[in-house]
Amino acid sequence: MQTVTLEFDSDDLRALGIIPGGFFEHFEEVELLETLRLESGWRLQLLRLRSRGGLRSERELERESRRIRRLYGLEGFELVERRPRTRDYILLVRQKNPTVLRALIDLAGGEVSPIAPFRLSEKTSVATFRAEEGALRRVLARLRKEELPFRVLRTSSRPFLPGPGAATLTDRQRDVLGRAWTLGFYSVPRRITLTQLARTTGQSPPALGKMLRRAERHLVARFLASELPSGSVELIGDGKR
């Protein structure tokens, strides 16, 4: 598997409809925390939005939900957490994909996953993707064909080689651990409770707690039994007009 991090001019993304017009009049940045579902026509993602002003209450967001959905092209959204100190919303968002994004998803054949770091700001935007090298090359070639300039910030391949007897995490355990980390469940002090975290997974708090403990046990086994090699490899050059 290969990971590539790209930098774009945000004006180019606005012109393609990937960033809604007027978005940065109200928000400083948006960060992708996790992609829960990615289909050709729509995506379900966990996002962090930093407001330019004070945060609205959950009741205010519910009252204005129809206007917010229409303004930003959302099919739906759910408030997961408010962070007044940093002016951040954590939102679960279902959104239609613009034409260019649908074309890229179809081209990748479901083999490319957007991952962190993935952050959009008013002037520049950074996007990271992970996939087999062939799928990434096809996507980057299409970006150049669409005359969407980008700069490659980093490419890497970091395989994890478990040692003898190390346990393996399930896909579900990896997803839940990643979300728990992103939302601050492992921060000191915690930024989200087990009950709040369970709301984002569709599980009861006791069931989620057991899953986390099993996954943590596996991670400890991996840490004690193996090492993580690292390195970077060249994937492809920058895209230019």
Describe the structure concisely.
34% of the residues lie in helices and 30% in strands.
Q: How is this structure best described in words?
A:
- The protein has two domains: about 1-155, no CATH class; about 170-225.
- The longest helix is centred in the C-terminal third of the chain and has 21 residues, at about 205-225.
- It has helices at about 10-15, 60-65, 65-70, 100-110, 135-145, 170-180, 195-200, 205-225, and strands spanning about 1-10, 25-40, 40-50, 75-85, 90-95, 115-120, 125-130, 150-155.
- Helix 6 (about 170-180) crosses helix 8.
- The chain has about 240 residues and is of the alpha+beta class.
- The model is unreliable at about 160-165 and about 225-235 (pLDDT under 50).
- The two termini are about 30 Å apart.
Query: What is the overall number of helices?
Result: 8
Reading side by side through the largest sheet, how are the strands ordered?
4-5-3-2-6-7-1-8
Shape: globular
Overall strand count: 8
Question: Unreliable segments (pLDDT under 50, ≥5 consecutive)?
Answer: 159-166, 226-236
* Major sheet size, sense and barrel closure: 8 strands, antiparallel
What order do the helices and strands follow?
A: EHEEHHEEHEEHEHHH
Helical residue percent?
Answer: 25-40%
Structural class estimated from helices and strands:
alpha+beta
